[in-house]
Write a structure and sequence with these properties.
Helices cover about 30% and strands about 25% of the residues. The chain is built from 2 helices and 5 strands; from the N terminus they run αβββββα. The longest helix is centred in the first third of the chain and has 14 residues. Bound molecules: zinc ion (ZN). This is Small CPxCG-related zinc finger protein. It comes from Halarchaeum grantii.
């Protein structure tokens, strides 16, 4: 009985695990938002890279979405 309860608790913990946040990049030219391409660092940590070029306009300048407002507000 106690064992079942512990099993339930650990399952609940797994299910409430928040999904990894995907980095997003805004095209500096046309403002299309791209999902970062996931890759792993040599240490095994997840990281994201901006796409090589924008699928909308072909530009290759991207700003991380967390920096976007600041980036635009500076202009
Ligand atoms: Zn673009």
């Amino acid at each position: 009985m106690a064992e079942n309860l512990m099993q339930l608790r650990s399952q609940a913990r797994i299910m409430s695990h928040t999904p990894e946040e995907v980095a997003r990049y805004v095209c500096d030219n046309c403002q299309l938002i791209h999902a970062g391409a996931p890759s792993r660092t040599p240490a095994g940590k997840r990281r994201f890279e901006p796409p090589a070029e924008c699928g909308g306009c072909g530009a290759d300048e991207f700003v991380g979405i967390e920096n976007w407002i600041h980036h635009r507000a500076d202009e």
